[in-house]
Specification:
binds inosinic acid, 6-stranded mixed beta sheet, globular, 3-stranded antiparallel beta sheet, Rossmann fold, binds magnesium ion
Length: 175
């Protein structure tokens, strides 16, 4: 493999600034509701940690893990939401928070799973909306940034479980 390089795309300051805007949109939408914030592990860890300190609303915090397993390890196959069974979401207002919206399959599937279990309303929030053609049928309700169709890491986003700790978001590429 050629050397990899990291090209900064979104700075730490830009993230902090944008999060305040997203938090205030969420606050306006969920005021007076029985809010359950559901963090999608592990990529949303930085986003949720920062967001919950900005929204200034009462809420319950829960986690799920979304995974896809295919016939071959690397292939995207059947989706699964792990941890749904132990959540109390019936008749409650859920906000699913993930790091990035790519094809949208993950959040479309997670949203449908929550609705099947009787959630009153399910909205989605991502830090990054990747600009790719898609047919998932949903768009995220709260979005921080858009990014080009490249592979990005940092601020929770990983490549093989690495780079999550970077305070900024950058493109990981070979060159
Ligand atoms: P989707 O189901 O295609 O929308 O994929 C969303 C999931 O794929 C995210 O929750 C991430 O875990 C992962 N993902 C997609 N694009 C990237 C990327 O550029 N960097 C890191 N993870 C990504
Ligand atoms: Mg993910």
């Amino acid at each position: 493999m050629d050397a990899t390089y990291l090209r900064p795309l979104i700075t730490q300051e830009e993230i902090a600034h944008e999060l305040k805007k997203v938090a205030s949109q969420i606050k306006n939408d969920y005021r007076g509701k029985d809010l359950v914030i559901v963090m999608v592990l592990k990529g949303a860890v930085c986003l949720v940690a920062d967001l919950i300190r900005e929204i200034d609303l009462p809420f319950a915090l829960e986690t799920v893990q979304c995974s896809s397993y295919g016939a071959r390890g690397t292939e995207r196959g059947e989706l699964q939401v792990i941890g749904l069974d132990r959540l109390h979401i019936h008749n409650r207002d859920c906000l699913i928070v993930d790091d990035i919206f790519d094809s949208g399959r993950t959040l479309a599937f997670a949203k449908a799973s929550f609705e099947t279990r009787g959630a009153a309303r399910v909205l989605t929030c991502v830090l990054v909306d990747k600009q790719v053609p898609r047919a998932a049928g949903i768009v995220p309700d709260f979005v921080g940034f858009t990014c080009p169709p490249v592979f990005v890491v940092g601020y929770g986003l990983d490549y093989r479980n690495r780079y999550r700790e970077l305070p900024f978001i950058g493109e990981l590429a070979e060159g």
